[in-house]
Structure formats: structure tokens, C-alpha cells
Design goal:
heterodimer, B: about 575 residues, alpha/beta, eight-stranded mixed beta sheet, 16 helices, 24 strands, about 20% strand
Chain lengths: ~230, ~575
């Protein structure tokens, strides 16, 4: 199978280049990550992040033939050749397929991604009805892979000011939690021309999410909450 | 080479559930903590835990911690230390409620309480009816827990060193542990992290096997570091093979599938677990179920054209239950087995999953080793928790959902113990002159190696050797050969060569350093397994099919320097209740 992979090692390269690989895959190499591991066994200088190899850790997000996705759950069968692999767009490249995710995590941290509840905790669990808990479905499952945020033109344009789809999905995760008491404060924190309102519902994020989540819908719900509290 | 040095109250290696639970305790106490992780914290392997965390909340069926303790002791095939098991089971409810208070999104029952499901080896009333003890967030409990712990650490301002790899332990002449050397992956720089307390929470080492449910990062780094520093490794012959890894791929299919009512079938469509465990059937202990699957395959009742796997049926649960309680499993089955479990069974085989052994500790998370006067002396400054530690609550076989409990209970306990210990030892001890010698020797060797072997190639040899010689059933001749073959692999590991010499994010170097750790784990496993002439829990010897309490009711200790074994007694005496004496183990 033929690959064309983005290569850049600041220790020796002046600028990035694309490198071609032609590799014989084994029948057990079903996913793109299997193919990359095989390439790396021949060329150990190819650098990428990977860990769980089952789509739950979010390490191996990359741009695959122009679309963001996780290498470990992208089947090689059906990929157009040469398979063009690039680092996630919109973030600085550290090396090869490895990007600097500092800005992505700064935005995640900026939404106070933790439950805020100032009541003394009860002896046992706080109660939450199945319906209240169901509000978190499709939201809490985010793996912070950054496929969505780095597919978003609004984030490319304002990565320092726009929270981005992943961060906003998590902002909604806490706004939607019946146990959280900081709703007003959370909305204040997003009431800004950039932080929330740079989202123009382009929906690249929905298309990119390897877990099938829908940040655009969550962002819409946050906007509804904003409207509701002003009327 | 001048090596930079930083000082902390405590250094934690590993940011999975255990490391982050400990970190939270220390950060909230105002200590200066550094948490090192090879990956961003939420990418640690805790994220892959599926089925739940054990606690006798009694939300669904009557339950109490003492029954949980009995199940755990029995599950361990009586090799578990009963003081540690009592300690863990007594605290289970409290730590689970605490996680809920932190914001963990558990599933809920109609009355608003935490959802619980049955799991293997869980019983009411000391071996009676099935208990319902596993607290779950769908089949993503580890994900929900790990993200919650990271979030809580963000709130507590914990200082993370992300994409840093611990390299070697620093000990002084007395054997006290004074910190670690570590590598910043992005820059390739080595640093000394000096600490009054060094806590290992580096997780498992399932990557010693060819077929494994484990992530790439599970390379036993803490065990390698400890072994090279003269700390023994305990009970390394005991590896759990999970009954249901996806056939041909190894990805985990949670026991929650069977907890929710799924069951295993052979090629005749027979529910064969009824023959092996008439009472508990598909929810017998994992070692029992994995042996049953292996026996079915061996005796020609496997499925598929090569008769080499079994089927896990769950379509009868219906689309609603599957989508609500097992959505991640459905996703994995569709992606990795090309079957939708709503319509079709999932092809599965036993797959290496969990290391019961590890760095020996007491239930405070303090590392204990033969030292000065006794076999279990505390090593000052050194702590270990989670899968890399052997406390030992899992003994010869771990029960499903006890691993998430283990990491939270002992992560918290180690945090508390460190806080206490630092009150007594408020100052850093001076570093020995040779603090960085060991690591520099390794790095220089790797840098200058010429004509050496490719890391991937040697790694494959290691994994295939372990797979062939140290699997679900173990045979005397295969073990004997295995010891010498893995010894040969170890010689090759010492001669690996990397092509990539870049300083920046050099993953070739990381993989070579990880292989140094994997081979320590593999050697310890093979040597310990070869010596244990009995069958107990996950260690099943063809030539010694019975448990032998007279000779083998004891923990193995493996010393890396001379590949020597020693033994120490099992702690049969609990903290307050009566001991559960060994008896025949039937499910």
C-alpha cells in the first residue's frame, strides 16, 4: 500500500516535506495505525502518538486524506492511495505527525472542566434521575483527541480566543449536569464575541468527531441557555 | 553531560487512575507535586476500563463489604493478602461516593442512585447467590473515572509533566529512594527529579504478550526501574488472560456483556460454561472462564474454519439494553470484528489483560522489600500503587471491577501516607554522586550502538516467546525452554540500535527504553512461572494441576540482578475480621 506522509524534524530539517512509503501489509494490518506501526518498524524515525489502539485514548488523531480522524479506528481498506497523512491542521507541528496541543488544552481548561457544587457532600451519592443523567450522553464521551477543534475554521482563525468545539462540548457537559451549581458563572465565562459566538455552525466538528458526538448541537444548546437567561 | 535538577516534595510517575488519585490527595494538601506521564493524562490506560468499579453499595441487591472481601480472597485463590483485601473492601463505598461527588457520570437507577450490574465472582452471603456490585458508567467506566480525576486535578492545580518518561530510580547507599531521572520527550532532555517521596503508578506491562488487550504504553516502566534498582518483583507468574478479547485483534470486550446477560457458545451452539462452572456459569472467575475457552478450542469445539475461537452472544439482550448499557462494546465489535452484536455474536478468545504481580507494597502503598532485618521492610521514600504494585489484593487472580477499586483505594491511601511521612521527614536527603550513572550508561549505549538489532524486531521476538511459552496453560518443558529463550532475547535487548538520533520527540528512543523495561517484566514472569510447581488462579500448570497449599501458599519474589527467586508468606490475617482459610475453589 502506498502512503505519502508529512515529515518534519526540526533537529535536522529546514522545512517539512512529504515522504512516500510503499509497504506490504499483512492481513492482520486492518487499521491505519497497524500500517503506521509496520512502516515504523522499517523506518524508526517516523514519529506519531499512539496508545490504546481502540479509539478511546485519543492519541493518534491525524489528518487522513484531508479529513481528521483516529488512525487506530480507520480501516485501511477503502482509503484512497497514496494515503496522504498530515498532522492535525491549525496547531504548531512538533515533529512529523505530532502537534503541539497546548492551545487546545488551554481552551479546555478555560471552561473550568470540573463539577462545581458547593453544598457539603452527602453521606452517599448525590441523586440524579436517569433522565437527568441522560443529558450527559453524547457529551461526556469526548476523548479530547482534537479532531473537531482542529477541523474548525473559526478555531484556525482565533485559536487563542475561540474555545472551539471540544471545549464547548465540555462546557455544555457541566452546564447539563443536574449536580452542577455554577451554570450562571459558566455562561458568564462564555458570554463573549469570541469564546462562544465565533461558532458559525459550519459543522466540520460533527463531521470530524470519531466518536460520533455533536459539538454543534451542544453549542446550540449553550446559545439557547444564553438567550433564555436574558428574557 | 550536565543534567538539570528539580526538587519536589513528591514525584508521581504515571497519571492513570492511581497516580491521579494520589496526586489529588497531595495537591489538595498543598504539597509540591510533579506528576509525570508518557501521555496526556486522559490517554492513560485506565481510560480503557469498561465494566465498572466494585463496591458493596447494595443499590440493587443486598450487599456488604465483608461478602466482597470473601469473594476477593476466594477469587485470588487464597494468595491475596487479607489485611490489604479487608482494607480495600471496607473503603470501597466511600471512595465510590467520593468519585460521584467529584462529578463522575455514573449511570443511574430509577431511584437516582448509582447503577450497578453483576460481575464475575461476585456473591452474596459468602458464596451464595450472584451479587450486583459493579458500579458503572455504561461500558466506559474507566473513561468516566479518568476524565473526572483529571478534571479534579485541574481544579486542584496539580503540576503535570506531560510526555515525560521516568528512566531510572535514584537510591542512596542506604537504599533510600530519592527520586528519579526522567526524559522530556519533546526536547530529549534528561532531568533529575529529586523528591522526598517517589510514587510509582506506571500501570501494567501487558505488552510482553503478542496478543494483549493492553495499550502500547503498557510497558512496565515502573517495574523495570524498580528491578534495575534492586527492588524485587512479586508474584510475576500471575497474569490474567481475559476470556473475551476480540478474536485476531485483542481489543477488550468487557465482562459487562456477560454481567448484563450475554453468554459464551462453542461451535455446537452449546453454553459450555455450564459444564465448567455449574453455579456461576459465564460469571465464574476470569481464570476459570479463560481455561474453559482454551479447553473448548483444544478439544475441537472452537468456532470458525480454524476452530480457534468462541462466540459471545448478546443479541437476545435487545437493541435497547445494548445501546444503553454496552454502546462502546457495540462500537468495538462493529469496528474490530465486523459484526453488529445486536444481530450477531462476537468472536472472542482469551487475551493477556492484567498483571496481578508487581512491586511489593503494604496497604499504605509503601514499597516493602527484604531489607536490613526482615522480608517486608519499608523502603524509605518509595511508594507504588495500581497495576504496577503488588499489594496484594488480587493474589493469583483478579476479579473484574476490583482493578478500578484498587487504584482508587490505594492511590488515596498512598497519598495520605506520603502526607504523614513527609511530616516526619521534611527535608530532602542529599543525592548520591552516582545518581545519574545508571541512566547515562543506558542512554550512551543506545546512542553509540553500532551493528545492533532493530527494536521492533527484538520486541516481536519477546512478545512471541511469552505468548508461546507462558500462556493460559503452562507446560514444564515449554517453561524451561521459555526461560532460556527469554534470556536470549534479553541479550539482544542489550544490543538494540536505533536509526533515529534526533533530540526532538524521538519515539524510536522511547521504544528502545521501553523494551529495557519489558524484558525485565518478561524475565521475571518466565522465571517465576517456571519455578511454581502448582496450579493456582491464573497460573495453570499442566504437570501440577492442583493447588498445593502446603508448599506454595506463598508469594514469589524475583530479583533481577541474579535472576534469583525468594519467597515470603501470604498475609492470611485480616485487620479486624476472621481469616478466610484456604478451601477448594468452585464456582
Amino acid at each position: 500500500m502506498r502512503f505519502s506522509i508529512y515529515r518534519y524534524d526540526p533537529d535536522k530539517d529546514d522545512k517539512p516535506h512529504m515522504q512516500d512509503y510503499d509497504v506490504a501489509l499483512e492481513p492482520s494490518d486492518r487499521m491505519l495505525l497497524d500500517a503506521l506501526v509496520r512502516i515504523k518498524s522499517v523506518d524508526d524515525s517516523l514519529s506519531l502518538r499512539r496508545s490504546c489502539r481502540e479509539g478511546v485514548c485519543g492519541s493518534d488523531a491525524m489528518n487522513i486524506n484531508g479529513r481528521n480522524g483516529l488512525a487506530c479506528i480507520t480501516p485501511v481498506a477503502g482509503l484512497r492511495e497514496p494515503v496522504e497523512l498530515r498532522p492535525l491542521p491549525g496547531l504548531p507541528v512538533i515533529r512529523d505527525l505530532i502537534v503541539d496541543m497546548t492551545q487546545f488544552f488551554q481552551q479546555y481548561h478555560s471552561i473550568k472542566p470540573y463539577l462545581i457544587n458547593n453544598d457539603p457532600p452527602p453521606e452517599t451519592e448525590r441523586l440524579q434521575s436517569p433522565a437527568e443523567r441522560a443529558e450527559l450522553d453524547g457529551v461526556y464521551e469526548c476523548i479530547l483527541c482534537a479532531c473537531c477543534t482542529t477541523a474548525c475554521p473559526s478555531f484556525w482563525w482565533n485559536p487563542d480566543k475561540f474555545v472551539g468545539p471540544a471545549g464547548l462540548l465540555q462546557a455544555y457537559r457541566f452546564l447539563a449536569d443536574s449536580r452542577d451549581q455554577a451554570g450562571a458563572e459558566r455562561l458568564d465565562n462564555l458570554e463573549d464575541p469570541y469564546r462562544l459566538f465565533r461558532c458559525h455552525s459550519i459543522m466540520n466538528c460533527v463531521d470530524a468527531c470519531p466518536k460520533g458526538l455533536n459539538p454543534t448541537s451542544a453549542i446550540g444548546k449553550i446559545k439557547d441557555m444564553m438567550v433564555k437567561r436574558t428574557v | 553531560m550536565a543534567i538539570a535538577r528539580r526538587k519536589f516534595d513528591a514525584v508521581i510517575i504515571g497519571a492513570g487512575g492511581a497516580g491521579m488519585r494520589a496526586a489529588l490527595q497531595l495537591s489538595e494538601a498543598g504539597l509540591k507535586v510533579a506528576v509525570l506521564s508518557k501521555v496526556f493524562p486522559t490517554r492513560s490506560h485506565t481510560v480503557a476500563a469498561q465494566g465498572g468499579i466494585a463496591a458493596a453499595l447494595g443499590n440493587v441487591t443486598e450487599d456488604n463489604w465483608h461478602w466482597h472481601m470473601y469473594d476477593t480472597v476466594k477469587g485470588s485463590d487464597y494468595l491475596g493478602d487479607q489485611d490489604a483485601i479487608e482494607f480495600m473492601c471496607r473503603q470501597a463505598n466511600e471512595v465510590v461516593y467520593e468519585l460521584e461527588h467529584f462529578g463522575m457520570p455514573f449511570d443511574r437507577l430509577e431511584n437516582g442512585k448509582i447503577y450497578q450490574r453483576p460481575f464475575g465472582g461476585q456473591s452474596q452471603n459468602f458464596g451464595g447467590a450472584q451479587a450486583t456490585r459493579s458500579c458503572a458508567a455504561a461500558d466506559r467506566t474507566g473513561h468516566a473515572m479518568l476524565h473526572t480525576l483529571y478534571q479534579r486535578n485541574v481544579r486542584a492545580n496539580t503540576q503535570f509533566f506531560i510526555e515525560w518518561m521516568g528512566l531510572d530510580l535514584i537510591r542512596d547507599e542506604q537504599g533510600d529512594v530519592l527520586g528519579v531521572t526522567a526524559l522530556e520527550m519533546e526536547t530529549g532532555e534528561v532531568m533529575v527529579l529529586q523528591a522526598k517521596a517517589t510514587l510509582f503508578a506506571t500501570g501494567g506491562a501487558g505488552r510482553i504478550f503478542h496478543a494483549s488487550t493492553n495499550a502500547f504504553i503498557n510497558t512496565g516502566d515502573g517495574l523495570g526501574m524498580a528491578a534495575r534498582a534492586g527492588i524485587p518483583l512479586e508474584d510475576m507468574e500471575f497474569w490474567q488472560f481475559h476470556p473475551t478479547g476480540v478474536y485476531g485483534v485483542g481489543v477488550l470486550i468487557s465482562e459487562a456483556v456477560r454481567g448484563e446477560g450475554g453468554y459464551l457458545l462453542n461451535k455446537d451452539g452449546e453454553r459450555f460454561m455450564q459444564r465448567y462452572a455449574p453455579h456461576a456459569k459465564d460469571l465464574a472467575s476470569r481464570d476459570v472462564v479463560s481455561r474453559a475457552l482454551t479447553t473448548e478450542i483444544k478439544e475441537g469445539r472452537g468456532c470458525g474454519k480454524d476452530a480457534d475461537h468462541l462466540l459471545l452472544k448478546l443479541d437476545h439482550l435487545g437493541a435497547d439494553v445494548i445501546n444503553m448499557r454496552l454502546p462502546g462494546i457495540r462500537e468495538i465489535a462493529i469496528k474490530f470484528a465486523q459484526v453488529d452484536p445486536i444481530n450477531e455474536p462476537i468472536p472472542v478468545v482469551p487475551t493477556a489483560h492484567y498483571m496481578m504481580g508487581g512491586i511489593p507494597t503494604n496497604f499504605h502503598g509503601q514499597v516493602v522489600a527484604p531489607y536490613k532485618t526482615g522480608p517486608e521492610e519499608v523502603v524509605p521514600g518509595f511508594y507504588a500503587v495500581g497495576e504496577c504494585a503488588c499489594v496484594s489484593v488480587h493474589g493469583a487472580n483478579r476479579l473484574g471491577t476490583n482493578s478500578l477499586l484498587d487504584i482508587i483505594v490505594f492511590g488515596r491511601a498512598a497519598g495520605n501516607r506520603i502526607i504523614e511521612d513527609l511530616k516526619k521527614n521534611p527535608h530532602h536527603k542529599p543525592l548520591p554522586a552516582d545518581a545519574t550513572d545508571k541512566v547515562l550508561t543506558r542512554l550512551t549505549r543506545l546512542e553509540n550502538q553500532k551493528g545492533g538489532e532493530n527494536v521492533a524486531q527484538v520486541g516481536t521476538a519477546l512478545r512471541k516467546t511469552m505468548q508461546a511459552h507462558c500462556g493460559v496453560f503452562r507446560f514444564a518443558d515449554m517453561l524451561k525452554q521459555g526461560v532460556s529463550r527469554i534470556g536470549e532475547v534479553a541479550e539482544r535487548v542489550a544490543q538494540t540500535e536505533i536509526g533515529d538520533k534526533s533530540r526532538v520527540f524521538n519515539t524510536a528512543r522511547i521504544e528502545a527504553l521501553e523494551l529495557d523495561n519489558l524484558v525485565e517484566v518478561a524475565l521475571a514472569t518466565m522465571v517465576s512461572a517456571e519455578a511454581r510447581n502448582e496450579s493456582r488462579g491464573a497460573h495453570a500448570r499442566d504437570d501440577f494441576p492442583k493447588r498445593d497449599d502446603d508448599k506454595w501458599l506463598k508469594h514469589t519474589l524475583y530479583f533481577s540482578a541474579d535472576r534469583r527467586l525468594d519467597y515470603k508468606p501470604v498475609r492470611l490475617k485480616p485487620l479486624t475480621v476472621e481469616s478466610f482459610p484456604p478451601k477448594p475453589r468452585v464456582y
